[in-house]
Specification:
Chain lengths: ~160, ~110
């Protein structure tokens, strides 16, 4: 388990402190409806995609800002190291999160016609959380990368919609 | 008028890898928010995006509520031949939108 899972880092403390100081930990917190996804439901969602296969670390790179001011729009890029030929290519790319109401973010299907296994999109993040990208290769192997994202203003905390 | 913005290079060399950018106007209502009277706002999102190149599917994405409003995608494809690249989005409540772009491959 990485250091980030257990300990509060100096950076998090500083950011937390600055949020309090600037009044960011707001009444908004009161209106949060508790997120439903948990690391366990994320693990279950990943299991559903990969089955019994082992997910190895490497080949995939998930780029996402480590510190996000607004969780409503967070741009991410997943790039996979693959020649993208008919015999050796990326079949699918999945992105998961652990604390949004649902664990899935996107499922992408591509093939050798892509030429390059790089995709970019934008997601919502309801909390500071871990985001995982998993690539499925044409040989049936799965590879992953993850980013721990710190979100100062979460998605889903808006007051009532008029 | 289409609510989509598409960016595909008008010309490319045969075999060149080109970037395709798409942006479509949609609220992507998550189904997890409440209105001012405390009533849950029903989910209304785009669930499927498909891109075909001269009729052949080259890219497909399934969107979940975690995709931000106005779904944006950048992906790549090999410019194989001149023709039309078609983009289709489908979603909740029978939502359907499409757009297309022409490409000349030399």
């Amino acid at each position: 388990m990485s250091k980030h899972d257990n300990e509060t880092t100096r950076r998090e403390v500083l950011i937390g402190a600055s949020c309090v100081a600037s009044g960011l930990v707001l009444p908004a917190l009161v209106t949060i409806r508790r997120s439903e996804a948990t690391p366990a439901t994320m693990a279950a969602a990943i299991r559903k995609v990969v089955g019994d296969a082992k997910v190895k670390t490497g080949k995939v790179k998930l780029e996402m800002p480590p510190l996000v001011e607004n969780g409503n729009t967070v741009q991410f890029t997943v790039s996979v190291d693959s020649p993208m030929t008919a015999s050796d290519h990326v079949k699918a790319i999945y992105v998961f999160n652990e604390k949004n109401p649902q664990p899935n973010i996107i499922s992408i299907h591509l093939g050798p016609r892509a030429g390059r296994a790089i995709v970019t999109s934008r997601c919502r993040l309801a909390d500071s959380e871990k985001v995982i990208a998993i690539a499925e290769m044409s040989d049936g192997s799965f590879w992953s990368d993850h980013v721990d994202v710190l979100v100062t203003i979460a998605a889903c905390v808006e007051d009532g919609i008029p | 008028m289409s609510s989509a913005l598409i960016n595909v290079p008008a010309r490319a060399k045969r075999g060149e890898i080109i970037a395709i950018k798409t942006l479509i106007s949609h609220l992507m209502e998550t189904g997890f928010r409440y209105d001012s009277t405390g009533v849950l706002v029903p989910r209304n999102i785009i669930t499927d995006f498909v891109c075909t190149y001269n009729g052949e599917e080259i890219f497909r994405a399934g969107f979940f509520p975690a995709i931000a409003a106005n779904p944006f995608m950048i992906f790549y494809t090999v410019a194989t031949e001149s023709g039309t690249i078609v983009f289709q989005w489908a979603g909740d409540n029978g939502y359907s939108e499409s757009a297309s772009a022409k490409i000349v491959v030399e």
